[in-house]
Amino acid sequence: MSTIDVGKSANTQLKSGAAILAAAGTVDTRLIKDRLRTFQEAQQTYADAHAKVQHAEAVLAKAQAQFRTEQRAVVDTLARALVADGQQLRKPFAAFGTVTMGALIHMPAADAVKALPELVAAIRRSKTLGKVTLQAVPGAEKTTRGMEQALAHIEALGSTVYDARATRHAVAQAWEAALGALKRGARAAADDGAPALYATLFDRPARTKANNHKPAPAPTPSAPSAPEPVPAAS
Q1: What is the number of structural domains in the chain?
Q2: Does residue 227 belong to any structural domain of this protein?
Q3: Taking a C-beta distance cutoff of 8 angstroms, is the pair 115, 107 a contact?
Q4: Which residues lie below 8 Å from residue 175, measured CB to CB, with a gap of 6+?
């Protein structure tokens, strides 16, 4: 048997906490009822804080993905239009600066907010635009105008994630303190007539190591020896 390892991550700790509370339902816990109740409350508070972090991260990821989609759409649309009007296939933006198509697609959002409007404006000022590019520019301008606001929204969401993680960290410390108190109480309960309480809550069967030895290959059967010649009858 080995003591349960609660780990370091929120997911692992919450999973371990749930296992401890489930085990508590199988044994008499009256000797530690106050500490157990405190841990139950800490577990719920921790789970709520973790859920808020997960939600905030998901909202942020969605906003970032939407920004990247619009960023790529602007670059792709302009590149296709410029190529259709005679610009180089591999370097469609060469006439409007040194930034490559790949750099524009993958640059950070804060840089894209500045670079893409400048690119669209440079294309708009060109005196040699073809028909396809002229048709593509208004849509690109509309998209890039909304990027600054989208970036501000992403930054606000990032702050929300940061705050949620900070709250979760503080809650996790309280959870660990409640867990420690519960362990001490369960150990002490052995002197008051509950010797199996600690083991029930915190001990888990040790994992057996897998046998990594491969079975020895079966010996290759040897070829049968040739029969001895039968002597001829005299």
Answers
A1: 1
A2: no
A3: yes
A4: 13, 17, 39, 42, 43, 45, 46
